[in-house]
Amino acid sequence: MVPIEHVLIFNAIMFCIGMYGVMARRNGVLVLMAIELMLNAVAINLVAFSSRIDPVGGSGIVFAIFVITIAAAELGLGLAIVLRVYRMRTSVNVDEVDFMRW
Amino acid sequence: MDLAFWVPVLCVLAFFFNVIISRQLGRQRHAVAGFVSVGVILACFALFVTVFTDALAHLAPFAGGGDHGATTSTSSASAAFGASDERQLLFDKTPWFVIGPHELWVTMSVDWLSIMMLGVVSFLASLIQIYALAYMKGDNRYWWFFSVMSLFCAAMFTLVLAYDFLLLYMAWEMVGLCSFLLIGFWYHERDNAEAAKKAFITTRIGDVGFFIGIALLFLNTGSFRMDEVFTAIRAGRVDPAIVTAAGILVFLGAMGKSGQFPLHVWLPDAMAGPTPVSALVHSATMVAAGVFLVGRAFPLFEASSVTMGFIAIVGTFTAIFAATIGVTQREVKKILAYSTVSQLGYMIAALGIGAYTAGLFHLFTHSFFKALLFLGAGSMIHAMEAVYGHHDKRANDIFNMGGLRTRMPITFWTFLLASLSLAGIPPLAGFWSKDEILVGALDSGNWLVFAVLLTGSFLTAFYMFRLIFIAFFGSERWRVVAATTTGTHEVQEATVFHEGQGDHVLGAMSDPQATVHGVHDEHTAGNDGHGATAGHGVPHESPWVMALPLALIAIPAVAAGWLNIPGGYAPFGEAIYYGEPHHATGIHWGAAISGTVAALLGIGLASVMYWRPVIAPSAVSSQAPGLYRALVNKYYFDEAYQWVIDRIILGVSGLAATFDRKVINDRVIDAPGHLTVAAGDKLRYLETGRVYHYAFAFVVGIIIIGLVMAWFPNIPFNFW
Amino acid sequence: MDLGAAVFYAVAAATIVASLGVVVTRSVVYSALLLILALALTGLVYLLLLSDFLALVQILVYGGTVSILLLFALMLTRPRESPVLNHSGWPLAALGAVLTLGTLVFAVVTTSWGDLARTFASSASTAERTARSAAPARLGPEELGTALFTTWAVPFEIASVVLLVALVGSLLVARASEDSEAVSEAEPLPGPQSQAEAGA
């Protein structure tokens, strides 16, 4: 099979792409999408380790399930907030959501 | 004799009573304060009499043997102690407070020196306060005047009774404070406040030296008590250099208080205070405190010939220096002030050359006739204020007086007696004391001192009689000048004496009587309504409340000298001496005759220049115009001191102030504030409110942590 | 290289391309669609890693719900004018991402991954461990379910609470005060009477 380093590097690339997305995108929804990418990278990482370390118990898989669950919950809440902000400002531009600044 | 302690205490109580209670009494407060103060001081005098009689019974050398130990007036015992060997110590060994291993006591000593001073101060203070009852009438701070007078008396009594340096210094400072308060009594006039400040600051300079001296003595002998200090010095336990240094420093205090050169500048200005103050404080008591200190601490000075020489030089120089200035002054009180400085110089010089009894005897007699002179001057000024109005400076000028002899007989005769005494005409008091100083100078071989002091006697007689002839004799110039108050300079060309180039008030003329009448007629024709614009009358004799003290003080002014007739009745010399009593065998004719001759020459010259003007004063002064100007301007000392203050002291202060403002305030105190604000201004960029900025911060943190963890693989980053 | 590895590399490359597309494209819709693609490919990766249950879950949850949610959100939050989708500071962000990537890669490469089984060993015997590392097993839904309800019961419960909280929370946050007014002010639906009148 594939040596584990390759899987990890693949995950790292996906994670960093997601991170770039968080930092660089202006639309709030797109930021949330990038966060989903990051979480997915993490989940793959967990599953990869699980297949090597604990193939019997599958603890990594369970962990990944939890990650997906929480990611979904967080996405729901995040979108709710984005909608709220949109209603206030008619814009989801994160540049303009700087109410708590100096 | 233990009652002596009550003398200062009563005065302090009077002060507090006046300040706390009398003040609240409304309109009555002046009368109450006056009565309380005078009553207390009379009680102090009564106490003095008690103490005196008791001391006569118990203190050597008048008691037979005494019951305070074995000391009698034998030379060995007196050599052990100095001054009169017998004293009564009060509060001996009762600790006042304790600092570490040192116990500090307040010790008072009742001995002949302090008894003498007690007597002088209480006698003069009583009579002067009675005098002031009338003199200060009408002043709306009358009550405060008497309160501070009581406080002053308290301080003075403490000073003379003190037998440890700390108590003496405390009383010294308090006397200075009361002097300041009294000189600046009419502080609403700027000049008076300035004079008070000047007095305080100048004496302060001396006081600093005094305190350093006391500290030196304490460090080297371990005690403030005088007997312990003197024993230590005499036993040689103190390094001679320290003894000299301490002596000179302590003498600096005496120089400040007694107005010796160069700290003399405050005394003439102190005449801005009310005349009773000048009489009591600045002629007889406070300024004598310096001389008293030299007498009290004589073992300290005597132990070093350098100090003694210094004292003698300062005293002699001051004596002649002040006399030369006094010759040219115009104001009554200023003439008397310079005379005081000069006479104090005599006393200090006498002490400096070792004539202990002579110096203190002159202190004794001088108090009386100087106080009398000042009271007389007050009387004259009071009379002149009837012509010129209150607080008019022209009331002080002798050239505005004249012919007062017939109008104020009591004042005139007492003043004359006091002046004769001051000049040293036998058989008045001043003669005996001055003579004894001259004898002391001769005996110790100081020919230069003798010559200088003799010249001083000549000048003293001259300026005193100049004053008398101008003020009491001659035409009544005050009529003329009062009539021409609104006139121009030309119109004021109306009178007798033209002294020197600086004299711009009065013009010259030859025949006093005719011109006065002429001018007077001319001006009654011309200035009808302006007879005496500011004043309202003619000078008159003072009320009996003021005249009685004059008469009473005249008695000791004349007779005090008879307490120390050499070769005859001399109880003063028996009681107050240093080392051994000075048993003179008889009158030293050389000194006596030369002294009297000098005085007579002075009187003669004055009469020739001012009574029947044969020699015009302007002729004399024009011989040496530069010298004349220097004398009139008091040798420009005030200007010199002012320059030092302005340039040097204020310059340094300016530097310190600038340092404080620029460096300490701006850099140290304000700068952290600015720094905080500037830092905050930069730090606010951390809180932009933009999520992606925060995300970036996360990323940076992750990178750093990751790198750290990767670089140090062996460190277990376990956080659980 | 065997077939499995080749497939894996291909899928991985595709996923990476898709994710790059998510963060780079100028159109939000393309971004969303590419995200769906990336997530689906991730499911494929799970499959390759021999956890088919998880692959199913992934496709169901992400491909089914998350993508719909995102599309709805994009629809509801249409900006007024067509925006620029990237910040002005995106080079810095790229730099940060690259640095992070570098750090992670460095960490991965410098660690010796030789014996994973031995490093994180349980108390199983050596034979079991070698057996484990030799032949990767398959995990089906039964085993996962058992594990979920026995070993991982507490996290499971907590996760359900979290979901509940998220549900209630998003309802609360997304509901605006105008909505309730709008509801009350809305006209009632036309009843049969008006229809009859309209008809007659």
Question: What does this entry look like structurally?
Answer:
The complex is a heterotrimer of chains A (102), B (720) and C (200). Chain A is an all-alpha fold. Chain A has one domain: Helix Hairpins (Orthogonal Bundle), CATH 1.10.287. Chain A has 3 helices and no strands. The longest helix of chain A is centred in the last third of the chain and has 31 residues. The termini of chain A are far apart. The relative contact order of chain A is 0.14. Chain B is mainly alpha-helical. Chain B is built from 28 helices and 4 strands. In chain B, strand 2 and strand 3 form a beta hairpin. In chain B, helix 1 packs antiparallel against helix 5, helix 7 runs antiparallel to helix 9 and helix 13 runs parallel beside helix 19. The longest helix of chain B is centred in the last third of the chain and has 47 residues. The relative contact order of chain B is 0.07. Among the domains of chain C are: 85 residues, NADH-ubiquinone/plastoquinone oxidoreductase chain 6, subunit NuoJ (Four Helix Bundle (Hemerythrin (Met), subunit A)), CATH 1.20.120; 38 residues. Chain C is globular. In chain C, helix 1 runs antiparallel to helix 2 and helix 2 packs antiparallel against helix 3. By secondary structure, chain C is mostly helical. The C terminus of chain C is likely disordered. Chain C has 10 helices and no strands. Chains in contact: A-B, A-C, B-C.
Task: Give a topology summary.
The complex is a heterotrimer of chains A (102), B (720) and C (200).
Chain A: H1 4-24, H2 28-53, H3 59-89
Helix pairs in contact in A: 1-2, 2-3
Chain B: H1 6-20, H2 29-58, H3 75-81, E1 88-90, E2 95-99, E3 102-105, E4 108-110, H4 112-135, H5 142-161, H6 165-183, H7 190-221, H8 226-234, H9 240-257, H10 266-269, H11 275-296, H12 298-302, H13 305-326, H14 332-352, H15 356-388, H16 404-407, H17 409-423, H18 429-443, H19 447-472, H20 477-483, H21 512-526, H22 544-559, H23 571-575, H24 589-611, H25 617-623, H26 625-632, H27 637-683, H28 691-711
Antiparallel strand pairs in B: 1-4, 2-3
Helix pairs in contact in B: 1-2, 1-5, 2-4, 2-5, 4-5, 4-11, 4-15, 4-22, 5-6, 5-11, 6-7, 6-11, 7-9, 9-11, 9-13, 11-14, 11-15, 13-14, 13-19, 14-15, 14-19, 15-17, 15-18, 15-22, 17-19, 17-22, 18-19, 18-24, 19-24, 20-21
Chain C: H1 3-24, H2 28-48, H3 52-76, H4 90-110, H5 116-119, H6 126-134, H7 141-149, H8 153-174, H9 177-185, H10 192-199
Helix pairs in contact in C: 1-2, 2-3
